[in-house]
Amino acid sequence: MLSDEMKKHLVLFLEDDHAAQDTTSTFTPEMTDARAVIKANEPATLAGVEEALFLFAHLGLTVVAKKNDGDVVHPGNILLEATGSNRAILSIERTVLNVLGRMSGVATLCRHAQQMAGKNTEIALTRKTIPGFNLFDKKAAEIAGIWPHRLHLEDAVLIKENHLRFFASAADAVLAAHKSPSVKTGGPNGPKIIEIEVQTLDELKSAVTQKPDLVLLDNFSLPKAETAVKWCRSNAPDVQIELSGGIRLSNLAAFAVLQPDYISLGLLTKEARTVDFSLDFI
Predict the structure, then answer these.
(1) How far is the C-alpha of 201 from the C-alpha of 135, rounded, in Å?
(2) pLDDT above 90 (res 19)
(3) pTM over 0.85
(4) Is 248 tagged catalytic?
């Protein structure tokens, strides 16, 4: 379901491309009942269909989805069919393909990572998203079946290394979060989750004394992560564990063997490749 915020962003994407002032389309012979299809040129997990439907409809075009978000598509598969003014279709083509390609690229990489991690650990996104496209990157992750993490800074507490510089200890930082009125009040789902990033076993031991909801083991080597996960499971079983930093697809399976609750990967957005889709008139 597209939120009002997402719809506003999509309209801004069109305005950014000056779709309403497409110079080339102004002298292209007009056809009011043109028909065009978007097809896949490579395998992918599809994401962005709902966004594409909105963009086409926003310019008064009739559009029908042939595939759904989350579907695995293959070269030659038809994803959508649009009917209406050829000039409108031409002016919106690149914006639609950019959104579909980016979201599907993120979703494809996210699903691949989750399959590598197995069933006992959930893959999570980070906030290393493209400015202005954050909501769509996060939605693509959800479509792929992984945890999008925070949508906005206000959604949860994540005490990171730079926050910790202003506290005497990790325990003090978590305690301050528990006492914060904005955390206690929370939102419609109750108090906000408190997560803290730790970089050593000592910081972990300090943090869990104040009962955060999650601890994020940042840049722990595989042996150190194994030690920390075992210690936390034995001494703070109610605290969930997230691993992040230094984890790539090449070593993801090895870290997943430790069975943390989550593994978050910045590469899922930083290194996502835009999927190759094309639009053709028929």
Answers:
(1) 34
(2) no
(3) yes
(4) no
